[in-house]
Amino acid sequence: MKKIVTIGITVLAGLTLTACGNNKSNSASSKSSSTETASSVKPSDQASNRTWTYKNNVFDAGIETYRFTKSEVRDSSEDGKKVLVLYCDVTNNSKKEQDPSNVYMVVHAYQKTDTSNVQLDPGMVALDENGNNPLQEQDDNLNNKLLPGKTVHAVMVYTLKNNNPVKVTFENPDFNTIGTKTYNLK
């Protein structure tokens, strides 16, 4: 437990330091990031100065860009539960290795119950007939250090409370919501 808390504090401190250096708005970088393809990104020392945006299923978080490609509901590893799987391509825009899983600090999923709008916890898909996680490679890609200028396919997984729509919020370095997307479950 101490290790998890220490890691969380370290990640939050790193994100806060990045946010402190992100006071400048660089509109030229913002414009180019919306038209870039994941494979054309050139790593930059100035990536942390990019304005954070969410538009057209693309969350540009300065040093990393998350391009959401599809979503689906799957069985959870927890009996009787379901998970929402968000597929994304993650690109490292900086010249340093990055940890894509930090996205969970600024991307949150919410679902209404009978009494509350509940923040959903990260989850895990059910294992296949061989006891393997069918999304292991994409899950690993979210948790591995991403090399500069590289793009990987990853997944974000949230444990559902019910069949109600899920509202996902995207926040900037100051933890203010800059965009939302609602996923209607089938």
What do you see in this structure?
The chain is of the alpha+beta class and 186 residues long. The protein contains three helices and nine strands, in the order H-H-E-E-E-E-E-E-H-E-E-E. The strands form two sheets. Strands 1-2-3-4-7 form a five-stranded antiparallel β-sheet. Strand 2 and strand 3 form a beta hairpin. The chain starts with a helix and ends with a strand.
Please describe the topology of this protein:
Layout: H1 2-20, H2 27-35, E1 53-55, E2 58-60, E3 64-75, E4 82-92, E5 107-112, E6 117-119, H3 136-143, E7 151-159, E8 166-171, E9 177-183
Antiparallel strand pairs: 1-2, 2-3, 3-4, 4-7, 5-6, 5-8, 8-9
Q: Key features?
A:
186 residues; alpha+beta; five-stranded antiparallel beta sheet
Strands of the biggest beta sheet: in what spatial order?
A: 1-2-3-4-7
Measured on Cα atoms, how large is the radius of gyration? 17 Å
**General shape:** globular
Number of helices: 3
Low-pLDDT ranges: 1-39
Kindly summarize this structure in a few lines:
With 186 residues, the protein is of the alpha+beta class. The protein has three helices and nine strands, in the order ααββββββαβββ.
